[in-house]
Write a structure and sequence with these properties.
The chain is α/β, with parallel strands linked by helices. It has one domain: 3-Layer(aba) Sandwich (Rossmann fold). Helix content is 37%, strand content 26%. The protein is built from eight helices and ten strands. It has a six-stranded mixed β-sheet with strand order 6-7-8-3-9-10, with helices on both faces. α2 (95-105) packs across α3 (110-123) and α2 (95-105) packs parallel to α4 (139-151). The radius of gyration is 19 Å and the shape is globular. The termini are far apart.
Length: 247
Amino acid sequence: MPIRISHLSKFYKRGLQSKNLVVHDLNMEIEEGEVFGFLGPNGAGKSTVIKILLDFIRPTSGTATIKGVSVNDTRVRKDIGYLPENPLFYDHLTGEEILRFGGKAAHMGKRALKERTEQLLTRLKLSDAKGQPIRTYSKGMVQRIGLALALVHDPEICILDEPMSGLDPLGRRLVADLILDMRKTGKTVFFSSHILSDIEELCDRVGILNKGKLLFCGPLEDLNGDSEGLEQAFIRLVEADEAQISG
């Protein structure tokens, strides 16, 4: 199983006695070769879950594994490609230099790295800007070079936090096609997004989180029903949960 999350909880202390519960007893399994969409309102806990998967922070309780190995084990790094919501780079470096840096960090051979860099730059329409410093890139271009960096070592599992953020329609189409191609080649893609139309187009299954609690996990057709779209189903689930919390 590429990703397994079992009874995962995370809280932060507020003062001496109170706790801010961010994730509560979360259980999810992401299957090999699927595109999984992770949804939720702002503050639902999605980024916290992603940071735990990447071992940036540790859970209060529960476990998370990548291919059966604890996310705390550095061996899992080679299998993961990660795109943060707001990627930041040394802005004096060029796009090509950023990818070379990432590939060398992943211990890629010189020839394989050169071929992979050229392939990704071409695929993401960045070849003309590969020699330009990152500081000259638009927000959408930075997002695309960030995705190229996440994929440069050809990882088996891609974890993408808001990959469509800041992209124009052309950029969104490029990224969507790349995600679909990853699925065709058996890659596993786990990504969060607020753009529900992209989720509907790309995802095999979705998980919906609100206030750290999983409201739904399964195929889209099990969520939408006969006449309800993803947006309506999402709002219905979240509003029902909020009403239960308030009541």
